[in-house]
Model the fold of this input.
Amino acid sequence: MNQTREPLLIALQADLDALVARLEPATLIALDTEFVRESTYYARLCLLQIGTDDLLACVDPLNGLDLGALWERLLAPGTTLLMHSARQDLELVLAHAGRLPAALLDTQVAAGLLGHPPQVGYAGLVERLIGVALAKGHTRTDWSRRPLDAAQLEYAIDDVRYLPEAWRRLEAGLVETGRLAWAHEESAALLDPTLYENPPELAWQRVKGLRRLQGDAREAARALAAWRERTAEQFDRPRQWVLSDAQLLAIAGARPRDTAALANVAGLPPGLVRRRGRELVEAANSSVAGDPIVDPPPPDDRDRALLKRLGECLKKRAEALGVDPQVLATRADLVALVRGDGHCRLLTGWRREAAGAALLDAKDS
Done:
């Protein structure tokens, strides 16, 4: 491995252009990002870590660089991005580049298919596969602050330094077990742009405790959640800063008809009522397009017995494959199978081969 180390931090356009040129022959590029979003709706991209067998670099997007050519190179047809637990990073890629990679390999996905813990972290995987214990001293770094010192950059670049070798070792295991296609399919599923959309009309699905409401109060909560999503996006503020779940549920339960009634809702700061009172009242008394929110019926005795039998079958399939049952299916997947959901993941792709067919037989037996 002959990785170029200088300049480790790319903060000048000329250095970035040179990096893009050096990446030209690469077909597999390791990528990671550092970002902050504690006080914003949108994640703020602070660092791009890029690695191949021949080079390592951190790109500083906060230094006014034109990243257009870099995105074109990273997302070009014929190039596969190698990432670990890629979902959050892909959200940033889509937001900044306007599209997703042509192809993806996720080492966390691949590791799960070989019996590693389903949510194994990058550091844990590197130690398991390569025997290298990565430093943990900068896990709480504010990556938006400048300058970054040498230790911070080394910590950041470690996130891609070992990815190519980790993938090679995982790939060997996947080939040996006949699961390489599974890893490709499961990684490719992360390239669905709808995974990263936040339509306001579906924002109610994130509200914790909504099931406690019924009827009109629940519809009010849906409308308030849509208002909160639009407002958070417009002002680039976290949803909970705009309106907490507890405040949202309290307003929905009360359904105030005017700002005076809104002011009497427990837990609402006077400043919120003063600034957003009319909007909140209007939202609480409006509706959102779509079917009413209806909770599915709870499983009856027959369904519970069937779910238990399917769970036991799933456990046996997982043991036979040497993987955690969660890699094959969640309880929600089993419920979908019991209810005859045609979109059940267990009935498509590699999951049908690995477990779905056996579970269908168990269901019908």
The chain has three domains: 9-195, 200-284, 301-364.
